Fold this sequence. Notes:
mainly alpha
Amino acid sequence: MAEVQISLGNIQFANLYGNKVLQMDPEKWRxxxxxxxxLSMMGDFDTGIPYIKKAIALNPDHxxxxxxxxxxxxxxxxxxxxxxxxxxxxxxxxxxxxxxxxILRGEAYLGLNQQxxxxxxxxxxxxxxxxxxxx
Length: 135
């Protein structure tokens, strides 16, 4: 139900559903992910990020969760954390996430004024068919 609420743009309702599940079972990684993601969507990164980290701890093999954390760090302008987390995603060699992760890490490098590293990542993303119009 939380995912439906997100798709409808009802972020606060999605957050309520996620919190309700956590009250019933605090070990549900999806609920932690929903709560963390919705808090981050509402701009409360400091509160949301620990929920995402808990979701990762509960389901460490789910590469998309780690990618989402990288994306949240980027959105929060925590570029050092974004670079570190994106690098972890890339080390997993999940082909589906490689291109988007190189783009995110490249953008984080730009935020850190590391243009050369950013360009290298944008070039790597092109190898995966993503970012043809990247700087």
